[in-house]
Amino acid sequence: MPANLTPEYKAAEAAFRKARDPRERLEWLREMLRVIPKHKGTDHLQADIKRRIKELSEELEGPRKGGARTAPALVVRPEGAAQIALLGPPNAGKSSLHARLTGSSAQVAPYPFTTQYPEPGMLPYEDIHFQLVDLPAVSPEHPLPWLAGALSSADACLLVVDLGDPACVEQVEALHAFLRNKRVTLTERWEECPGEADESDPFALRLPTLLVANKADRLADAEEELRAFLELSGFRYPALITSAATGRGLGELGRWLFSHLGIVRVYTKAPGKPVERGHPFTLRRGQTVEDVARLVHKDLARQLRYARVWGKSGLQGQQVGREHRVEDGDVVELHA
Ligand SMILES: Nc1nc2c(ncn2[C@@H]2O[C@H](COP(=O)(O)OP(=O)(O)OP(=O)(O)O)[C@@H](O)[C@H]2O)c(=O)[nH]1
Ligand SMILES: [Mg+2]
Q1: N or C terminus: which one in the chain shows less Cβ crowding within 10 Å?
Q2: In this protein, which residues make up the domain named TGS (predicted)?
Q3: What is the distance between the alpha carbons of residues 64 and 47, in angstroms, rounded to a whole number?
Q4: Which residue has better confidence, 308 or 193?
């Protein structure tokens, strides 16, 4: 990190790192550029920020030809409890999984490079949803400059592979190399905060990753194949065996994501009113009553005086402060 960065710049950068919504990220990038001290030592960083602003603006609009929009947007606005990107080599079954898990009509075909643009869809789990984003294959034969940018809004990745493909290890290594070049690292560590990256590089991205060994219906012994694959490749990702054809493993995905992302559901109620059971707010483990208030309304977080909480922790409507950590299933009554 260059020297002489001001607290104002650092605050804008911290907000940028935290933001997942692409429009919000763009606003923070502009703010970073506005407040960055303009001197020789920050030339590189300034250029980097300008490039990101240009890329992200283009990605948000979708490709244009002669002023007309020719394709869908290249980054997907996050919705639901978390955004999960489907990544992997061509033909592994990403779109087939997407279609089965979310009911989307993602295009599936028996040849590689079928998917061309990001396709969002919602995977229901109990009373919440995860957003799954189907993506084009990552492969050296088909480099897509915007693909890494599309990952900046994701909270985690599903790395979909076909263990029956003899080129599988090589393909995943090529994918790693492509992402590394774009400063994106897939990590097996789900307990890290997503997006929390290298202190010295605001544009580095770390995404917790689950290996999805698909097309298990084609393998005589999928567990054995998976064990051999992990041993041969040295990859440490947690793994799930699936088949988009038979549905094997698909029912476990929602629970797996829920627990490994540390999702916490909070039900709010207004004083004297019943609990709003229909649509919980979703947070991550470690977040507080103040974070709940911010989700309800950003002014509410500022005006919050205290909350009353009912939940599994044993609280039965006791008063708590804004720093109180919420737990899954808590009912929260906010008092401004
Ligand atoms: N037997 C079997 N075939 C599958 C499975 N999943 C996908 N397929 C088939 O594999 C082929 C490729 O599937 P897609 O879902 O298009 O794969 P993709 O990873 O999205 O491919 P690209 O978009 O080209 O990167 C299609 O013929 C699918 O029917 C599976 O679990 N079992
Ligand atoms: Mg596809």
Answers
A1: N
A2: 262-336
A3: 24
A4: 308
CA of 172 to the centre of ligand 1 (A): 17
Of 62, 60, 64, give the one whose Cα is nearest residue 27. 60
Query: Tokens representing 247?
Result: 């549905």
- Residue 280 maps to which CATH number? 3.10.20.30
The response to whether residue 287 sits with its C-beta less than 6 Å from ligand 1 reads no
> What is the span of the domain harbouring residue 310?
263-335
Instruction: Identify the CA nearest to 307 among candidates 297, 264, 299, 315.
Output: 315
- Ligand 2 center from residue 113 Cα (angstroms): 7
Distance 162 CA to ligand 1 centre (A): 9
Ion ligand 2: residues, Cβ under 5 Å:
94-95, 114-115
Residue 73 covered by a domain: no
110 lines ligand 1 (CB under 6 A): yes
Domain match, 145 and 236 both: yes
